Amino acid sequence: MSEAPGTPESDHPTAPLLQAAAGREPDRVPVWFMRQAGRSLPEYRRVREGISMLDSCARPELVTEITLQPVRRYDVDAAIFYSDIMVPLKAIGVDLDIVPGTGPVIAEPIRDERGLAQLRDVAEGDLDHITAAVQMLVAELGPVPLIGFCGAPFTLASYLVEGGPSKDYARTKAMMVGAPRLWQELMERLARITTAFLRTQVEAGARAAQLFDSWAGSLSVADYRASVMPYSAAVLGGIADLGVPRIHFGVGTGELLVSMVEAGADVIGVDWRIPLDVAAGRVRAAREDVGPVVVQGNLDPALLGAPWPVLAERVREVLRAGGRVPGHVFNLGHGVPPTADPDTLARVVELVHAEGRSLRSA
Ligand code: CP3
Fold it and tell me: Uroporphyrinogen decarboxylase (URO-D) domain: which residues (predicted)?
């Protein structure tokens, strides 16, 4: 990472998130939550009243306000850009909506060559609202780093091909194995679009980048490596020159972690199904050349509803496991559920900051 004068890093050299991502030991264990903005916050529900999800993402003042809400409330060590993995697709004209309680819904699912015409490259001006929002946000955030993000090609393809959320990704996988040329073209286009979306955020001031391959865990290692990894690697490689840490996350990816690090991650995001030290050990055992493995995770979000003493002990368990790895960014294993109590999340942050450092042994 650049330490040259005038860069954000040298303005704020001690941001714990960036230190941990580089394998150094910050004064406190950094913590943020996937989906920390959103429906669990009453102040979010208030400002979103009468405005659709996608419309809200196109309004820089609103994006700034919503992104800042959890930062104000929780003393988290990072902000995550309020947007959605579908936003770049919307920006190039794909007819889609985000339906409350359901998720992304595509008007004309992509099933053949003809459907691919919906996916043109990002053009000059398409993402100006993203640049404006990130610049506005970064000016407000001060020392707290902003994490930019995008959906990985596979996770986006799953929505585009299925037409909406899916349990088994049957049509997506059928295309992947049955129509490899079509699949390749789809994935190449998505890699270019998402790389542009991510680059735009980092160039406007985001200081870390997360690739969400939320549904990659549904794949076998062989299929992941043959049909998905090259495109995720293209996205992660496509921002490598920008010098920000890259976080690579998916759900249920215990068997894919080595491949996901190989695709280009500086930090590997892990869900609750595998302890953080076991995750890091797997990567180290398979790839001695990757350098220090840094992990992000991995409290089971469902446990946020448990009585505090029980939950606190689980938070400490995550900190101890992360403490056996050279770098740990505390997070949930997936997003904050809409039903989560914000006061509970505030207590988790307090606990991570108060006890995290002393529970680290690595
Ligand atoms: O705080 C944050 O994490 C920042 C914002 C963020 C959103 N979506 C806002 C959002 C991020 C990082 C995402 C990424 C995203 N979107 C992913 C990857 C992360 C993951 O959870 O695995 C995925 C798969 C999507 C697609 C998507 N968008 C889903 C599944 C949903 C939920 C649908 C629902 O209503 O239950 C959305 C909508 C969405 N994206 C909301 C928010 C705050 C809720 C919509 C609302 O408030 O009306």
Answer: 30-39, 147-163
Residues within the annotated binding site? 35-39, 84, 159, 214, 334
**Ligand 1 centroid to residue 137 C-alpha, Å:** 19
CA pair distance 307, 298, nearest whole angstrom: 18
Set out the domains of the chain in order of their start, with CATH numbers: 11-359 (3.20.20.210)
Task: Please state the pTM of the whole predicted model.
Answer: 0.95
- 1 by Cβ neighbours in 10 Å (0-12 / 13-18 / 19+) ranks as middle
Q: Is the pLDDT of residue 242 over 90?
A: yes
Residues with CB under 6 A from ligand 1: 34-39, 48, 53, 80, 82-85, 98, 100-104, 149, 155, 212, 214, 335
List all residues 6 or more positions away from 321 whose beta carbon is below 8 Å from its beta carbon.
275, 276, 277, 278
Report the SS3 class of residue 267. strand
pLDDT exceeds 80 at position 261: yes
* Cα 86 from Cα 99, distance rounded (Å): 12
* More reliable by pLDDT, 306 or 291: 306
Residue 161's nearest CA partner among 179, 143, 136 is 179
Prediction ipTM score: 0.94
Query: Which of 55, 85, 272 has most ligand 1 atoms within 8 Å of CB, for mutation?
Result: 85
Report the amino acid identity of residue 88.
P
Residues sharing a CB contact under 8 Å with residue 173, sequence separation 6 or more, in sequence order: 218, 219, 223
The two three-digit tokens of residue 61, written as one number: 């003042």
| Closest alpha carbon to 326 in 353, 297, 361 | 361
Angle at 161 between CA 158 and CA 165, to 5 degrees: 50
Query: What would the two tokens of residue 186 be?
Result: 């789809």
> Residues 218-236, buried b or exposed e (16+ Cβ, 10 A)?
bbeeebbbebbbbbbbbbb
* Residue 316 identity (one-letter amino acid): R
Distance of CA 41 from the midpoint of ligand 1 (Å): 14
